[in-house]
């Protein structure tokens, strides 16, 4: 079914006087879709036609004349609202003209003052609109008839705000064009979540591991969707946190789990989808936006408790427990006492003899990945379900290591008055690593105020900000004050105004010492990296004598069982005469885990640095011209 004001256009197919020379992007996508053999899904989205490309894809800067500074994102948003406001926002501005004339006026305005990507989306999201039906009609007209990317994107963004179920067919087709998929998926999420999931999957349908999922969703068969979810590996590089939520919503995961009999493998996959949604490797935490999260948590835990123990089930349940305890899932709308009861049930299960014995099956001859996962199961279970003080202090610090299969960084979590600080006040990334916060003594409070960065956006601080506080000791109290954080949360709502938190100094020191002593979150390659970094801090001359300085010491992001030392070579470093603008080279030295004890490996690496120029055995990765 199509929108009422489009039916004449669909039935009579008249020529479009506004766009006589080029087909609309909707018509282009429709024609390509109709040409697919046997009506099959396309293997990915369609490329943008050359005629539809913006004149300059440089972003907001392109809207400025050559002799003026480039526009910032905020300036570009303001400029877009100033241009579109009179056409869309004021009462009667759009309703006084028919949609064809109004859409043409908007398109001409966009041609005069181009607006790109995120600036256009932000401008439309916050634009006051007095006449919603008129704005919807303009959005429909642009979505169906615009031949250029910017105008079509504006149409989709308007339907994202004001669209109705009748707009789903148009959005499903138009979203097949590259550059329009993401806004179309967002628009469809509000109108038809299954269509949104299918469109997102179609974008990656060229990948064999997602092809079966896409075809199952396209069939509309719930059993086929469940089977596809069971069989899919849910690989990290294909199923992002946002896609995990789309899959759960589009397949009606909660409904599938309400069935009388549920395949055990589906329970594991449901748990893995929850874990992936709780990941903070995205602009927002998807688990807090998943409406069925609490029900699915309850069902997965209750039904898995009756199954035999396996490593995979234990890993999923332990991951869920960690997040419910101190991660974003702590903030879900639990009933009174429901979260605590869930944790008690998980603790009783995972510490019972049959489940607690699972890590012992990995012997010393097992591959590093198997030994690592077994050590994580043992250590994380002991830390999470260890006895806690009857009267907890105001501050709790937890170091959390994730299931190694998920390849998530180790993070430090902070709970103040029982609430997780970083996801509630920041929400754009996880807490910093324990090496960052503990090894340099950043959290140790002194009478000298010091700003401590507790968390950083998953992209970078320069992109989406960080969460930082000034830590200072004032008499018998430690104070966290003068907070620095983005003004808005990821969902666009104002960030909370954080007060100055005051902690009893003795309790603060004891909690910090407990968190530093707690083990179970590291592994040999990471321990080697920490010891190597400590040795270089104590003996900086080891690298300086070779005109080099350390950049980063840790584990390889792609291979967590390899220790890496990144260092930079700049002539004159040893004499203190290096020039930041002078020549430089950056090297990486890789130390794969060979089973040697971390202390021995770190000591051997330090001896070699003292005796041999590391440029002879490290790999040169980049440098100045």
Please describe what this structure looks like.
By secondary structure, the chain is of the alpha+beta class. 46% of the residues lie in helices and 11% in strands. The protein is built from 27 helices and 11 strands. The chain has a 4-stranded antiparallel β-sheet with strand order 4-5-6-7. Strands 8-9-10-11 form a 4-stranded antiparallel β-sheet, with helices on one face. The protein has a 3-stranded antiparallel β-sheet with strand order 1-2-3. A hairpin with a 2-residue loop joins β2 (411-416) and β3 (419-420). Residues 4-20, 57-66 and 91-95 have low confidence and may be disordered.
Quote the beta fraction. Answer: 5-15%
Span of the ends, CA to CA: 60 Å
Strand order of the largest sheet: 4-5-6-7
| Tertiary shape | globular
Give the class from helix and strand content and strand pairing. Answer: alpha+beta
Task: Provide a quick synopsis of the model.
The chain is α+β, with helices and mostly antiparallel strands and 625 residues long.
SSE topology sketch:
Blueprint: H1 7-12, H2 25-34, H3 73-89, H4 99-112, H5 117-126, H6 132-145, H7 149-162, H8 168-174, H9 181-191, H10 193-203, H11 208-219, H12 222-231, H13 241-250, H14 253-257, H15 264-278, H16 293-304, H17 311-326, H18 338-350, H19 353-356, H20 368-384, E1 395-400, E2 411-416, E3 419-420, H21 421-425, H22 434-439, E4 450-456, H23 461-464, E5 466-474, E6 477-484, E7 501-504, H24 505-517, H25 524-538, H26 541-544, E8 548-555, E9 562-569, E10 585-592, H27 598-611, E11 619-623
Antiparallel strand pairs: 1-2, 2-3, 4-5, 5-6, 6-7, 8-9, 9-10, 10-11
Helix pairs in contact: 3-4, 3-5, 4-6, 5-7, 6-7, 7-9, 8-9, 9-10, 10-11, 10-13, 11-12, 13-15, 15-16, 15-17, 17-18, 17-20, 25-27
């Amino acid at each position: 079914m199509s929108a009422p004001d489009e039916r004449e256009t669909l039935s009579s197919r008249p020529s479009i006087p506004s766009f006589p020379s080029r087909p609309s992007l909707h018509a282009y996508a429709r024609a390509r879709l109709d040409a697919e053999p046997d009506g099959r899904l396309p293997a990915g989205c369609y490329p943008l036609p050359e005629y539809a490309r913006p004149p300059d894809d440089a972003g907001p800067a392109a809207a400025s004349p050559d002799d003026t500074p480039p526009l910032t994102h905020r300036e570009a948003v303001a400029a877009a609202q100033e241009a579109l406001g009179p056409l869309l926002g004021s009462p009667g501005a759009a309703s006084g003209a028919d949609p064809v004339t109004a859409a043409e006026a908007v398109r001409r305005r966009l041609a005069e003052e181009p607006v790109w990507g995120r600036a256009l989306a932000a401008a439309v999201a916050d634009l006051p609109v007095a006449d919603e039906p008129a704005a919807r009609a303009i959005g429909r007209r642009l979505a169906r008839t615009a031949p250029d990317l910017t105008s079509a994107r504006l149409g989709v963004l308007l339907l994202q705000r004001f669209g109705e179920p009748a707009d789903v067919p148009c959005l499903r087709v138009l979203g097949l064009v590259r550059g329009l998929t993401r806004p179309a998926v967002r628009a469809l999420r509000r109108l038809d979540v299954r269509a949104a999931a299918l469109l997102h999957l179609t974008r990656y349908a060229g990948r064999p591991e997602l092809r079966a999922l896409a075809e199952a969703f396209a069939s509309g068969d719930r059993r086929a969707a469940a089977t596809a979810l069971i069989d899919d590996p849910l690989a990290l590089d294909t199923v992002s946190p946002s896609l995990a939520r789309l899959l759960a919503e589009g397949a009606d995961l909660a409904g599938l789990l309400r069935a009388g009999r549920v395949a055990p493998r589906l329970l594991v996959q449901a748990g893995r989808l929850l874990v992936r949604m709780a990941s903070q490797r995205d602009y927002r935490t998807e688990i807090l936006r998943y409406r069925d999260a609490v029900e699915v948590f309850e069902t997965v835990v209750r039904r898995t408790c009756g199954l035999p123990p396996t490593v995979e089930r234990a890993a999923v349940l332990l991951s869920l427990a960690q997040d419910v305890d101190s991660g974003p899932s702590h903030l879900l709308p639990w009933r009174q006492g429901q979260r605590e009861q869930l944790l008690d049930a998980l603790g009783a299960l995972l510490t019972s003899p049959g489940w607690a014995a699972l890590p012992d099956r990995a012997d010393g001859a097992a591959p590093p990945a198997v030994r690592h996962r077994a050590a994580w199961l043992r250590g994380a279970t002991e830390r999470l379900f260890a006895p806690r003080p009857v009267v907890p202090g105001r501050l709790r610090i937890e170091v959390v290591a994730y299931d190694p299969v998920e390849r998530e960084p180790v993070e430090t979590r902070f709970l103040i008055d029982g609430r997780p600080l970083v996801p509630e006040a920041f929400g754009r990334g996880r807490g910093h690593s324990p090496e960052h916060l503990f090894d340099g003594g950043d959290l140790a409070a002194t009478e000298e105020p010091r700003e401590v960065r507790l968390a950083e956006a998953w992209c970078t601080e320069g992109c989406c900000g960080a969460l930082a506080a000034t830590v200072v000791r004032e008499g018998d109290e430690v104070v966290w004050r003068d907070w620095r954080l983005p003004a808005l949360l990821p969902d666009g709502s104002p960030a909370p105004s954080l007060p100055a938190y005051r902690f009893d100094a003795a309790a603060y020191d004891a909690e910090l010492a407990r968190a530093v002593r707690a083990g179970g979150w590291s592994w040999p390659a990471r321990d080697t990296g920490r010891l190597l970094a400590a040795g270089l801090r104590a003996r900086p001359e080891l690298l300086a004598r070779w005109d080099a300085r350390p950049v980063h010491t840790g584990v390889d992001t792609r291979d967590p069982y390899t220790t890496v030392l990144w260092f930079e070579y700049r002539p004159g470093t040893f004499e203190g005469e290096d020039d930041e603008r002078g020549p430089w080279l950056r090297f990486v030295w890789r130390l794969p885990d060979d089973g040697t004890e971390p202390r021995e490996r770190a000591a051997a690496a330090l001896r070699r640095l003292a005796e041999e120029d590391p440029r002879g055995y490290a790999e040169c990765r980049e440098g100045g011209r």
